Automatic annotation (TrEMBL):
Keyword annotations of the record: Glycosyltransferase, Transferase
GO CC term (a single one): cytosol
Subunit structure: Homodimer.
Protein name: thymidine phosphorylase
NCBIfam families in alphabetical order: PRK05820.1, Y_phosphoryl
PROSITE patterns listed in its UniProt record: THYMID_PHOSPHORYLASE (PS00647)
Catalyzed reaction equations: thymidine + phosphate = 2-deoxy-alpha-D-ribose 1-phosphate + thymine
Gene3D superfamilies named among the record's database cross-references: Nucleoside phosphorylase/phosphoribosyltransferase catalytic domain, Pyrimidine nucleoside phosphorylase-like, C-terminal domain, Transferase, Pyrimidine Nucleoside Phosphorylase, Chain C
MF terms (GO), sorted A to Z: 1,4-alpha-oligoglucan phosphorylase activity; thymidine phosphorylase activity
Similarity-based family: Belongs to the thymidine/pyrimidine-nucleoside phosphorylase family.
InterPro entries given in the database record: Glycosyl_Trfase_fam3 (IPR000312), Glycosyl_Trfase_fam3_N_dom (IPR017459), Glycosyl_Trfase_fam3_N_dom_sf (IPR036320), Nuc_phospho_transferase (IPR035902), PYNP-like_C_sf (IPR036566), PYNP_C (IPR013102), Pyrmidine_PPas_bac/euk (IPR018090), Pyrmidine_PPase_CS (IPR017872)
UniProt-listed Pfam families: Glycos_trans_3N, Glycos_transf_3, PYNP_C
C-alpha cells in the first residue's frame, strides 16, 4: 500500500499489516515518506490506537531501522532505566553513577526535552565539555571499562525513532501510548541491555495524567520487552508536582550531585533509590530491594557514587571539577522571586504549567531547532503541603533574558494553588508493575 492509503486506513480505524508497517517505517527512515505524512499517521494513531499485533510490528520496525548494539563482551547483566518524562526529573543523572558504583553495567541512550519535560542529554550538556555524541565503539568501550556511558541516539541506533521523537514533540502527538511505548522500547532494546527499569510518571506534570493510563503504558512496554526476550519492571511514580526543588538544566545537575552526597530533597532521593534498587536486583548485585538500598546508602556515604560520576564526566570529555565547584557550571545573570498572594498552604501545583514556564524561559524547546539556555530555570522554595505567608517567595526564577520574565512569572503563579488546609500527601511510588 502507498503511504496515503496507509494513513487513510488508520484514520478510518483500519488495521495495518506488519509488512506495510515495516515498509512505511523504512520509507520514513530513508526520507521517501515525508515528515508531514508521518505527522498525519501519528495523529491517526493518536485517535485510533493500535492493537498488539500492529504495535509489535511498529516497535520492531523502529528497532530494526538501525543497528542493534551487542554488548556481550561486557560481563554482567546490563541494565538501564527510562523515565516517561517529568518536570525536575533528573533521576538519570544520579541513578547511573549509583548503579555503576554498585557494579551494574549501565548502557544509557537518552533523549532531549520533549514537550514540557526536560531531557537528560540537555542536562548533561550543561556540564562543560560533556560529549553525548560518542561513536558506538566508544560507547561499548566505556560500558565495559567504566560500567556506564550516557549518550544520545546515534545515526545508527533506532534512526526512525530519532526522527519521529523530534516530530512528535512539535505536532501534539507526544502523549499517545502506542507511540510512547514503541519509541521507548525501540531505543532501549537497541542499546544492548539485558533488563530495563521503567519510571512511568503519573500526574499533572506527566504525559499520563491518570493511574490507569500509566498502568496501561507500563504493561504495554513490559509486553514489548517480553516479546523481545528482555526482563522489564516498572514503577509508577508521582508527578503531581516537580521532583526535587530544581527545574532547569545546570540547576538539576547541581541537585543530582547533591543527591550523590546525601544532601538532596527527600522526594527526589526516594524515587532515585527505589528505581536504582530495582536495577541492582535485575543486575544480580542484590537479592532483594532492601539489600540493594543498603548498598546504595553505602556508596553515597563512602563517596564512591560521586567519584563514579566524576569518572563518567571525565571519560566523556567533561570537566570533573564542575562536580565539586558549581561555579564552573552555567550561571544565570539574575534571579527574581514569585511570591504567595495570601496566607495558607500550597494545595497543589499544575506541574505541566511549571514545565511550560520553563520552556518559555528558555530551559526547553518551543521548536525542534530551538536553542536551550542551560543556566536558566527555577528553584521551588515552596511545594505542595507547605505553609506560606502572603508576600513570601514560593519560586525563585533564574534568568538571563528579561523579555519573557513577566510571562514566566504569571505562568508560575497560575500553576500554584493556595488554600486554608494542607492537602493529603500522595505516595511517591504509586505502584510496581512487572
Amino acid at each position: 500500500m502507498q503511504p496515503y492509503e496507509l494513513i487513510k486506513a488508520k484514520r478510518d480505524g483500519g488495521r495495518l499489516e506488519p509488512a506495510d508497517i515495516r515498509a512505511f517505517i523504512e520509507a520514513y527512515t530513508a526520507g521517501t515518506v515525508a515528515d508531514y505524512q508521518m505527522a498525519a499517521m501519528c495523529m491517526a494513531i493518536f485517535f485510533r490506537g493500535m492493537d498488539s499485533r500492529e504495535l509489535g510490528a511498529w516497535a520492531r520496525a523502529m528497532l530494526e531501522s538501525g543497528e542493534v548494539l551487542d554488548l556481550s563482551d561486557t560481563p554482567g547483566v546490563k541494565v538501564d532505566k527510562h523515565s516517561t518524562g517529568g518536570v525536575g526529573d533528573k533521576v538519570s543523572l544520579s541513578l547511573a553513577p549509583l548503579a555503576a558504583a554498585c557494579g551494574v553495567p549501565v548502557p544509557m541512550i537518552s533523549g532531549r526535552g520533549l514537550g514540557h519535560t526536560g531531557g537528560t542529554l540537555d542536562k548533561l550538556e550543561s556540564i562543560p565539555g560533556f560529549n553525548v555524541n560518542l561513536p558506538t565503539s566508544e560507547y561499548r568501550r566505556l560500558v565495559r571499562e567504566v560500567n556506564c556511558c550516557l549518550i544520545g541516539q546515534t545515526a545508527q541506533v533506532a534512526p526512525a525513532d530519532k526522527k519521529l521523537y523530534a516530530l512528535r514533540d512539535v505536532t501534539a502527538t507526544v502523549d499517545c501510548i502506542p507511540l510512547i511505548a514503541s519509541s521507548i522500547m525501540s531505543k532501549k532494546l537497541a542499546e544492548g541491555i539485558d533488563a530495563l527499569v521503567l519510571d512511568v510518571k503519573v500526574g499533572s506534570g506527566a504525559f499520563m495524567k491518570r493511574d490507569e493510563d500509566a498502568r496501561t503504558l507500563a504493561k504495554t512496554m513490559i509486553g514489548l520487552g517480553a516479546e523481545m526476550g528482555k526482563k522489564v519492571v516498572a514503577l509508577l511514580t508521582d508527578m503531581d508536582q516537580p521532583l526535587g526543588r530544581k527545574v532547569g538544566n545546570a540547576l538539576e545537575v547541581i541537585e543530582a550531585v547533591d543527591m550523590l552526597r546525601g544532601n538532596a530533597p527527600e522526594d527526589y532521593t526516594e524515587v532515585t533509590y527505589a528505581l536504582t534498587a530495582e536495577m541492582l536486583v535485575l543486575g544480580k548485585k542484590a537479592a532483594t530491594v532492601e539489600e540493594a538500598r543498603e548498598k546504595l546508602r553505602k556508596v553515597v556515604e563512602d563517596g564512591s557514587a560521586v567519584r563514579k560520576l566524576k569518572e563518567i564526566v571525565q571519560v566523556q570529555g567533561g570537566d570533573p571539577r564542575s562536580i565539586d565547584d558549581y561555579s564552573l557550571l552555567p550561571q544565570a545573570k539574575a534571579t527574581v522571586d514569585v511570591v504567595a498572594p495570601r496566607d495558607g498552604f500550597v494545595t497543589g501545583i499544575d506541574t505541566e504549567g511549571v514545565g511550560m514556564a520553563a520552556v518559555a524561559l528558555g530551559a526547553g524547546r518551543q521548536r525542534t531547532d530551538s536553542k536551550i539556555d542551560p543556566a536558566v530555570g527555577f528553584t521551588l522554595l515552596k511545594k505542595s503541603g507547605e505553609s506560606v505567608k502572603q508576600g513570601e517567595p514560593v519560586v525563585r526564577v533564574h534568568y538571563n533574558d528579561a523579555a519573557q520574565l513577566e510571562n514566566v512569572k504569571a505562568r508560575l503563579l497560575a500553576a500554584y494553588r493556595f488554600g486554608d488546609v494542607a492537602p493529603v500527601a500522595r505516595p511517591l511510588i504509586r505502584e510496581r508493575v512487572e
